[in-house]
Design a protein that fits this description.
Elements: H1 6-13, E1 18-21, H2 26-38, E2 42-48, H3 54-67, E3 71-75, H4 82-85, H5 91-109, E4 115-116, H6 129-136, H7 142-145, H8 150-159, H9 185-200, E5 206-210, E6 215-221, H10 222-230, H11 232-239, E7 245-251
Parallel strand pairs: 1-2, 1-4, 2-3, 6-7
Antiparallel strand pairs: 5-6
Helix pairs in contact: 1-2, 2-8, 5-6
């Protein structure tokens, strides 16, 4: 059985209009581009929280500008919610509920009753607490429903001329901090500041994981490992104000 195309999906599910939870990443960028092509009424909503680094916000605005897209930026203090700030194993569930509820309230005022997000067919929804939240709030996931995988989305994004086509996957800053360790503006900014230093060194597609007693773990892709080892002394010195000890692990790119 042939899978439904995105344009068929839009025509069938939301011909009267739709709101998009927009992060500026590969998936939501491609979905926004396709929404614009469909001609249906839409608006993209970017929710700015302490969990997103500044460059993600800037990428979202850049993409929206290049597409001449309708976009609204909402600000939300997710750390006010103790179920999020306490950083339990299902933090993503509470965070997604909070963010999507905020978008739904605003987009309803704007005349949209349908909200969609960029979950794709490569995402393991069985292991994603956030997807449970999407189902409860009746958020549509067109990329997932149409069977579009991450590799297909990157290919189609490149063909569409989207600069996001080869953008590395970037999970939120909270994922760098051990489950059960309270999330604060300070430790989230520490993660952002130290990852920005590594970006300035020329590295990409990496993570810094915060651990107890000043330990930081740098996870970086195999193709950058030799360069990281060559510059290890420089990296240790640059990150020494935040980490008393650093270790190195290989990261699998997505």
């Amino acid at each position: 059985m042939d899978r439904m195309s995105l344009q068929e999906y839009f025509k069938t599910k939301c011909s009267s209009g739709a709101a998009l939870a927009f992060s500026g990443g590969v998936d939501s960028a491609f979905l926004l581009s396709e929404l614009i092509k469909s001609g249906i009424p839409y608006c993209a909503y970017y929710v700015k929280t302490d969990f997103q680094p500044q460059f993600e916000y800037e990428d979202a605005l850049r993409l929206a500008k290049e597409l001449n897209a309708n976009i609204k930026v909402l600000e939300l203090d997710v750390l006010k919610n103790p179920k999020i700030a306490e950083n339990p194993s299902n933090r993503c569930y509470f965070c997604k509920i909070s963010i999507m509820t905020e978008i739904k309230a605003v987009c309803k005022e704007d005349g949209f009753t349908i909200l969609m997000d960029g979950t794709n067919a490569s995402d393991d929804i069985s292991d994603r607490p956030g997807f449970k939240a999407l189902q409860e709030l009746e958020v549509l996931s067109p990329l997932h429903d149409c069977g579009l995988t991450k590799s297909e989305i990157r290919k189609l994004s490149k063909e569409a001329g989207l600069f996001t086509w080869n953008k590395p996957a970037y999970s939120c800053l909270a994922t760098r901090i051990n489950t059960g360790c309270r999330l604060t503006k300070e430790n989230l900014r520490q993660v952002e500041d130290t990852e920005k230093i590594l970006f300035n060194f020329g590295f990409n597609d990496f993570r810094i994981r915060q651990r107890d007693r000043g330990l930081g773990i740098i996870q970086i892709t195999e193709n950058q490992m030799d360069e990281m080892k060559r510059r290890w002394n420089e990296v240790e010195k640059a990150l020494s104000p935040w980490y008393s000890k650093l270790s190195l692990e290989t990261r699998v790119s997505k």
